[in-house]
Amino acid sequence: MTGQTINLRRARKARSRAEKRARSDAETRAGTAAASEPARLDRARRAQQARQLDGHRLEDSPDDDAS
């Protein structure tokens, strides 16, 4: 019937630290995702513009150089 003695103050502090760490990790993940969203959109826009520009490009034919 002898249980292990625990220090309640230490247990509360440990639980509090674990909760703070989990909250901080979640905020960091959310902040990182939010910060990378504009960069991802910018890359996608630049890629789309490059595709559109390539689609409108005129190809040089070998007959044009013979004039």
Please provide a written account of the structure.
This protein is mainly alpha-helical. The chain has a domain at 11-53. Helix content is 72%, strand content 0%. The protein is built from 1 helix and no strands. It has one helix at residues 8-55. The longest helix has 48 residues, at 8-55. It is rod-shaped. The model has no long low-confidence stretch (mean pLDDT 85).
- How is the biggest beta sheet arranged? none
Let me know the number of strands: 0
What is the string of SSEs from the N terminus onward?
H
Q: Which descriptor suits the 3D outline?
A: rod-shaped
Rg, Å, rounded: 30 Å
Number of helices: 1
Please bin the fraction of helical residues: over 70%
**Average pLDDT number:** 85
N-to-C span: 105 Å
Beta-strand share of residues: under 5%
Return the structural class: mainly alpha
Which blocks of ≥5 consecutive residues have pLDDT under 50?
none
Biased composition (Basic and acidic residues): 16-28
Region (Disordered): 1-67
Organism: Halovulum marinum
Protein name: DUF4169 domain-containing protein
